[in-house]
Amino acid sequence: MKSIDSVRDPLPGFGARAIPYVPLALFAGLGAVLAYLWKWPCRFNAAWNDGTLQFTNFCYTDIYPLWWNERLNEGQVPYFDYPVEYPVGIGGIMEFFRRIIPGDPGSTQAGTTFYDLTVILMAICLVVGVLMMAALAGPARRWDALWYALAPALILTAYINWDLAANALALGALLAWSKRRQWLAGVLLGLAIATKFYPLMFLGPLFLLTWRTGRWKPFLQTLGGVVGAWLAVNLPIMILAFDGWKRFYVFSQERPADWGSLWYFFNQKGWPLLGDPDRLDTLGVLSLGAFCLAIAVLTLTVRERPRLAQLCFLTLAAFMLTNKVWSPQYVLWLIPFAVLARPNWKPIALWMVAECWYFFAIWLYLVGLQEGKAHLGIAGDTYFTAVWGRAITILIMMAFVVRDILKPEHDVIRKDGSDDTAGGVFDGAPDRFRIALG
């Protein structure tokens, strides 16, 4: 006969396990509210409709103008009626909200409602992402997730675009991997890639650690889940609206060096070779390839196998440093993985200062480019201090992570004798392949 306690509590122990996460969820909610309040001058004073005020009030968002730019106000269905320049995950979110927004779709209120509904979804994604990051960090370090919940750069950039949705899926994928649920990890990672392209970089670390440990079955299961989930949401659009579907990929390929990227600096300064727009794609691929090759050599030769979070951070940082565009909200991608890789507050705080400076600098720079508004903004040279500031601080963090890999005694995560608690099948696995250099 069941005891009274077991009947009353159908999930024994669940409450005890959940309680430590409640404060983190509340802090994440606070971060979401603060991010919403940051957009207050635009949301409530119509600054989004002014090409200068949205920059001088530092409250720009892509979401509001895209209601019109992507023809959602005309009732056009993404990809089928209009070639949206985003992956299908974001296009699906757009279409869902387009269908439920009441009233006149051409009104300013409809665009504002579209923004508000998107913010609610992104706020939920932030809370979920923080909780999953805390679970990945483990009981001893779950409070590291506060760096994600309340990071100054997050509050400034949270609602510029749909990046928090991809973050939640990517963190969910790595959490599923850590729990050795490979198929689920693959499905979530495939959906993340279908929402934003950057989570594709995480396949590299999984492959390298699989090569070193010989755990091929879990990796292949995850890869199957990635391919299956990505095809499940992309294939119908590819078949029925190929021209609209391919717009994102064509746009990404044809896009020139854009704001925030180091290539934009080289281009604007007219550097030979590095500033040549005709060689941009080749240089981008070669530079990313060089970073990835260095990470691979490090992974396969180092005495003690790197942690999965360390490699995810390094590959993602490499992707950002070599990308043709580096929008302010891309900081959201890196925050959780930077903290999971190396939860040391000093370099992270320095990086946050650089990211915040860039956030303010980009809007002032755009104001300065407007005719007759130069006195309200900043010049190019001042703006480029922000471009290089965040690149250098990320390189500094990468250097510290590499040092921790080369000298594991400096890795605070491993000081208690653990191996890779978020590594799933890699945790405690013996090496099957290692290149000994000496």
TrEMBL record:
Main location: membrane
Membrane topology, from the record: Multi-pass membrane protein
Keyword Transcription regulation: no
Gene Ontology cellular component terms for the protein in this record: plasma membrane
Key words, A-Z: Cell membrane, Membrane, Transferase, Transmembrane, Transmembrane helix
Membrane-spanning segments: 18-38, 117-139, 183-207, 219-242, 283-302, 308-327, 348-367, 387-406
Subcellular localization(s) per the UniProt record: Cell membrane
Example GO molecular function: hexosyltransferase activity
Pfam family, one: GT87
Recorded family membership: Belongs to the glycosyltransferase 87 family.
Name of this chain's protein: Membrane protein
Organism whose genome encodes this protein: Planobispora siamensis
